[in-house]
Write a structure and sequence with these properties.
This protein is α+β, with helices and mostly antiparallel strands. The chain folds into two domains: 4-102, Orthogonal Bundle (Peroxidase, domain 1); 107-178. Helices cover 59% and strands 16% of the residues. It has eight helices and four strands. It has helices at residues 4-22, 25-39, 42-49, 55-62, 71-83, 90-104, 120-133, 166-178, and strands spanning 107-114, 138-145, 152-157, 160-165. Strand 1 (107-114), helix 7 and strand 2 form a beta-alpha-beta unit. The chain is globular and about 55 Å long. 21% of the residues are buried. The model has no long low-confidence stretch (mean pLDDT 92). Its main location: membrane. Belongs to the ATPase delta chain family.
């Protein structure tokens, strides 16, 4: 199966559009979170992967998730997930949906990974650079440390990854030399 984020994106975008239209963004986010929790269960996964089970049975199982959204739209979404065998991407759909909600609120979530922990001055500099890069948006900054980067930073937000690490530069050089 294709990368789950890639598979999830059109579903998340369509659901977000529907939710926004009806003013039920949070209710849909909650429903997706509950659905992802159910699908994470080993027994539910066994049921959903059982080739002897009809799609209607699988939709019925997933319909047991209590939701505060339009039931007809919810069941249509579940039927689509089952029919297209996209239920494994449910957690990613929920994540992308939540990302869309935050973007609509003007917030960009950014993960900054560095080889060593950033000091206060470095954090301020990175935060300022990110706010310039994402002008008009509030930047929610998270930090991680990965010594394998050797030095520099990797900045990740949504589909955008900026690899300014020593490891990334070495890998790029190796690819260039091989070609």
């Amino acid at each position: 199966m294709a990368d789950l984020i890639t598979v999830a994106r059109p579903y998340a975008e369509a659901l977000y559009g529907l939710a926004k239209e009806s003013g039920q963004e949070q209710a849909w986010a909650d429903a997706l979170q509950a659905l992802a929790a159910m699908i994470a269960d080993v027994q539910a996964q066994a049921f959903l992967t059982d080739p002897e089970r009809a799609d209607a049975e699988k939709v019925s199982l997933l319909s047991a998730v209590p939701v505060a959204v339009d039931v007809k739209a919810w069941k249509a979404f579940l039927a689509l997930l089952i029919h297209n065998d996209r239920w494994p991407a449910t957690a990613e759909i929920g994540t992308l949906f939540a990302d869309a909600m935050r973007r609509a609120e003007g917030v960009v979530d950014v993960l900054v990974t560095s080889a060593i922990a950033l000091d206060a001055g470095q954090k301020t500099a990175v935060q300022s650079a990110l706010e310039r890069r994402f002008a008009g948006h509030k930047v929610a900054f998270r930090e991680a440390v990965d010594a394998a980067l050797i030095g520099g930073l990797v900045i990740h937000t949504g589909d955008l990854t900026i690899d300014a690490s020593v490891r990334g530069q070495v890998q790029q050089l190796a690819r260039t030399l091989r070609s």
